[in-house]
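Sharing a chain and its predicted structure for anyone who wants a worked example. Both blocks are below, sequence first, tokens second.
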Amino acid sequence: MKLAIIAFCLILVPAACAKQANPPEQVSKPSIQGRVLQEPDGSPIRKANVQLNGLPEPGLQGRGVAQYSAISDAEGEFTIAEIEPGRYFIVVEHPGFVQSGTGNRRTSITVQAGSGKNDLILHLQPAAIITGKIVDLDGDVMRDVSVMATLVGSSAGGRAVHSFGNAATNDLGEFRISELRAGRYKVTASPPQGSRPPDSKENSGKEQPIYLPTHYPGVLNEEQAVAVEIHAGAETRVNFGLLTGRAYLVSGSVTGIPNKSGMAQVILQGMGGGVSQPGEQELRDGGKFEFKNVLPGTYVARLIVFTFDGGKPAVQMLRLGQPIEVRNASVEGLLLQPEAGGQVRGKFRLDTEQKFDWTQLSVMLMLADGGGAEFEVGGTNGLPTSSNVSADGSFELKNVPGGTYQLVVGASSNNLADYFTKSIHLGGRDVTDSGFAVNAETYLDVVVSAKGASISGKVVDDKGQAIANATVVDIPSAEHRGRLDLYQRSTSDASGNFTLRGLSAGKYSVLAFEDLQEDVRQPDFLKSYGTHGAMVELEEGTRKSVVLKVIPNDAETQ
């Protein structure tokens, strides 16, 4: 795993300057002018809102970034004057349109001092629309059903603008989701929580039939959902029915809640890709909880504790025992308590005999279980538990809650970009990929190597022209896909060049995007984009070079 680089900012405060007899000549700031045109006919678009959002430069974390905007006139023309030099992300908005990212369409720009005027041609294309009707199994319309369309490959935490949308059905059971980018979307209909068919009988929340979240064309498992292809300026109609199923009650109480706790909540989170529904609720008197309308599936229960230690808020998340299986009956009378924690100690060593300044490193624990969900170990304000490494290579993390974790190694110097964590052993067992369970005393043997492999190359368009500011990512092979640290990113420079350094041996898929906001760790990501990238196999210390064709924002996915 590559050592994550932790950036530090040094704020320099200049001394007061003496009065200058001859102040330097003021240099005028650059400006931008351009036009907003519609695809594919090139007609001008008026009243488009053009925004320049500043991007922070490396080493300037914490400093404000400039923002500018202008409105296009009847000829689609706009002007933005007095712009601070720097890198900017371009956003163009107009009702009924989405920003185009095809071919060489620019989504970012670098403004340099003394560059005068910069001419831009920006493109919008008519938005795509999904409409339809939601019915029950008898064909009767369903109202107040929430319908969501999500671009294949995107995730809840990283969806780009116009890559998802939602609406609710009206009294005719109809919905309309507008202003979507062209592409392939999965459509999900979610009824109001706990809603039941009219002919079902109330049974105190136990074993009652309810309407279930249903994926188009009428399936419960998201993996069986069929993506809908939508096109710019076109309306695509999607009709399907809600399915029903038996829901159950899960109840019990939590004991052993940490002292000095304020509010405490229980989360019941579904594991895997079934029809399970997550939920959360505040604990009642005696630590009791009761989840109604729980669908069959496997769940993991977690306790979230909110405290105010010394006047400072803190959040801690603890796992409550083994997964809970809900099959064909309610699960009642559970007695849950936080898993016993412990301390994690260990020591670093190099795979070769040489000196190393271990104080440049730090370690951090990431909780990784619960069907692929990842949570940072609770600390003040939810920050992860971390520790600096001592000069002799040792480290210690105290009061770690029970659970399964991965160790992430950080570095404070760019000089360590080619170093990577080669292996992590617990009791002679390699836990680099699998992670490890925390016991009362957990000791890790961590091996670091300077022989990290690298992937370099160039990002080009369909015509072989270099693409600047493209996002390049690598995705490890299936057996290593659970390791968060193996996913790297790089941004191509003005000549389209990029480098990914400090990689461990193995196979990687490497892809370049004009604008990437999806979560590359989602299962659908490689299914959607895998054929657009390059496969690279690395051995320790090797250097591989590839030419990547950029994937535009509206690329057709698989």
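Comments welcome. The two ends are 30 Å apart (CA to CA).
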